[in-house]
Amino acid sequence: MSGEPPPNYITPAGFAAMRARYDHLFGIERPALVEVISWAAGNGDRSENGDYIYGRKKLREIDRELAHLSRRMKAAKVVDPARQADRGKVFFGATVTVVDEDDVERTVTLVGADEADAGSGRISWLSPLARALRGAAVGDVRRVTLPGGDREQEILSIRYPDA
């Protein structure tokens, strides 16, 4: 196994959301904050100037997030799940319904790490469940090691977005 990280796959919608966040921070929030900081700096003693101190701290946070987003976008490999040729197997972007041995059904969509949101059923394609499901077809049973122990998951359905 090479020391290279796995590709940073992301859906077109996930990339657009990341780009929108970057553009909002860079084009709106950061310039407004710089304006507040320069106004606060003109108010004399900076050591006790709350607006100035808070503004500088907030600016550092925004700059850190901008740098992070920039790195993630540069590393991103946009993959459109609607273009998946083999729709009979689980790959990046698939929406999969599984059932475990207790007959608990769960529907998840395999997305990029930057757009994962388990609460809304979008799981990272690098998560234990997604890794176990990748390449599976309807009817296959896969064993998944989860924090609560090993669970068997049977694939009930696989869907991809329409082109």
TrEMBL record:
Residues 8-78 form the Transcription elongation factor GreA/GreB N-terminal domain. One of its GO terms (molecular function) is RNA polymerase binding. Residues 87-160 form the Transcription elongation factor GreA/GreB C-terminal domain. It comes from Rhizorhabdus histidinilytica. InterPro entries: GreA/GreB_C_sf (IPR036953), Tscrpt_elong_fac_GreA/B (IPR028624), Tscrpt_elong_fac_GreA/B_C (IPR001437), Tscrpt_elong_fac_GreA/B_fam (IPR023459), Tscrpt_elong_fac_GreA/B_N (IPR022691), Tscrpt_elong_fac_GreA/B_N_sf (IPR036805), Tscrpt_elong_fac_GreB (IPR006358). It comes from the Bacteria. This is Transcription elongation factor GreB. Keywords: DNA-binding, Elongation factor, Protein biosynthesis, Transcription, Transcription regulation. Gene3D superfamilies: Transcription elongation factor, GreA/GreB, C-terminal domain (3.10.50.30), Transcription elongation factor, GreA/GreB, N-terminal domain (1.10.287.180). Necessary for efficient RNA polymerase transcription elongation past template-encoded arresting sites. The arresting sites in DNA have the property of trapping a certain fraction of elongating RNA polymerases that pass through, resulting in locked ternary complexes. Cleavage of the nascent transcript by cleavage factors such as GreA or GreB allows the resumption of elongation from the new 3'terminus. GreB releases sequences of up to 9 nucleotides in length. GO terms for biological process: DNA-templated transcription elongation; regulation of DNA-templated transcription elongation. Pfam families: GreA_GreB, GreA_GreB_N. Belongs to the GreA/GreB family. GreB subfamily. Signal peptide: none annotated. The gene is greB. The keyword Transcription applies.
